[in-house]
Design goal:
Layout (H helix, E strand, L loop, with lengths): L2 H11 L3 E3 L1 H9 L4 H4 L7 E6 L7 E7 L5 E7 L8 E7 L16
Parallel strand pairs: 1-5
Antiparallel strand pairs: 2-3, 3-4, 4-5
């Protein structure tokens, strides 16, 4: 299991969450709501990790929406800090760019 994911999961469970401005914009663009994303973090699958991202470590997760639909969510932790978990972006993955499991990019 990913250390970044585990830290983010613990922060979310503890209510230490922030949504970036970009995150809010992307949620709205895809008709997604934070209340639909937060509960599915515990069952999320790690798609990609970005431990050396310049703004702080991040992880791309495959989560499920309220109706079980796939949602990709990038969560991060600000560089040099241990909290909060920041929702960087969230979107409905496009099958033209992702394999049917939404865990691997098409080549």
């Amino acid at each position: 299991m990913s250390e970044i994911f585990e830290q983010i999961r613990r922060l979310i469970e503890g209510g230490e969450v922030r949504i970036s401005d970009h995150g809010y914009d992307e949620l709205a663009a895809d008709g997604l709501f934070v209340r639909d994303i937060l509960p599915s973090v515990a069952e999320a699958a790690v798609v990609e990790e970005y431990p050396n991202y310049p703004k702080g470590p991040c992880v791309l997760l495959l989560q499920k929406g309220r109706k079980g639909e796939p949602i990709h969510v990038v969560w991060g932790i600000p560089k040099g800090r241990s909290s909060p978990a920041v929702l960087v972006t969230a979107y409905r993955p496009d099958l033209t760019r992702w394999e049917v499991d939404f865990l691997r990019r098409k080549k």
